[in-house]
Amino acid sequence: MAKGFWPAAIVLALLAVMALFPSLFTGTDPDTADLNATLRPPSGAHWLGTDQNGRDLYARIVHGAGPSLLIGAGAVGLALAGGVLIGVAAAQLGRAMDQVLSRSLDVILSVPGLLLVFLVVAVLGPGGGPASVGLAVISLPGFARVTRAEVIRLRGAHYVEAAHGFGWSRAQVVLRHILPNALGPVMVLATVTLGAMIVAGSSLSFVGLGPQPPTAEWGAMLADSQEFLAIAWWPAAFPGVAITVAVLAITVVGGHLQRRIERGRT
């Protein structure tokens, strides 16, 4: 077992529970403002201090876990679903379809990712959902290419040829033999991509393209705190730590899964 895996896995589990059930961690309303308690430092009353509107930072970070993680998870989920479908189609539906789909993916990759995300958000409007869709578009080619490569590698395996010999249809062979065995590397890519998408989602929120106020979201909290850095460090520090810890835990878990799959192939 890789060193650091279990601590990272525990952190991920806590973040998942926090995102789904924030009330288990705090009973404070993250949107309640107290103008008499603005920019208070960490204390017994406010464990992580307060922001420029007197809102409790601990409550906002806890409640911000859901929107912050959901942008990245939504992007990865959409890219995974679309990429797997495209990858299987490119590998199984003949050379002409492979060429069409591969060139289409090349077109997506030829456009700068940030510009493509901004274009999607400009069409759909700012918010967590549009941000996830935009990030999914730029992530989809990677999932499609990995899936395509795995399907091509597996379709020549002996058990696949045996299934064809038993009279199974192409769809049955793909669903029962090829796809389940091809998903390992794809899921590793999903885990690694999730960390990058969380950072990208926070970046979009930082520039105002993610969840809109007063929704608590880590990237938006960083943006709101930047003009107060000279007099209060905590409104920026703690959301930044939350993003860093989440991405680091995901990276450790993803690296562990990748090593396990590589060992399984040798």
Automatic annotation (TrEMBL):
<comment type="similarity">
    <text>Belongs to the binding-protein-dependent transport system permease family.</text>
</comment>
<keyword id="KW-0472">Membrane</keyword>
<feature type="domain" description="ABC transmembrane type-1">
    <location>
        <begin position="65"/>
        <end position="254"/>
    </location>
</feature>
<feature type="transmembrane region" description="Helical">
    <location>
        <begin position="131"/>
        <end position="147"/>
    </location>
</feature>
<dbReference type="InterPro" id="IPR035906">
    <property type="entry name" value="MetI-like_sf"/>
</dbReference>
<dbReference type="Pfam" id="PF00528">
    <property type="entry name" value="BPD_transp_1"/>
</dbReference>
<feature type="transmembrane region" description="Helical">
    <location>
        <begin position="231"/>
        <end position="257"/>
    </location>
</feature>
<dbReference type="InterPro" id="IPR050366">
    <property type="entry name" value="BP-dependent_transpt_permease"/>
</dbReference>
<keyword id="KW-0813">Transport</keyword>
<dbReference type="InterPro" id="IPR000515">
    <property type="entry name" value="MetI-like"/>
</dbReference>
<keyword id="KW-1133">Transmembrane helix</keyword>
<feature type="transmembrane region" description="Helical">
    <location>
        <begin position="186"/>
        <end position="211"/>
    </location>
</feature>
<keyword id="KW-1003">Cell membrane</keyword>
<feature type="transmembrane region" description="Helical">
    <location>
        <begin position="105"/>
        <end position="125"/>
    </location>
</feature>
<keyword id="KW-0812">Transmembrane</keyword>
<feature type="transmembrane region" description="Helical">
    <location>
        <begin position="69"/>
        <end position="93"/>
    </location>
</feature>
<protein>
    <submittedName>
        <fullName>ABC transporter permease</fullName>
    </submittedName>
</protein>
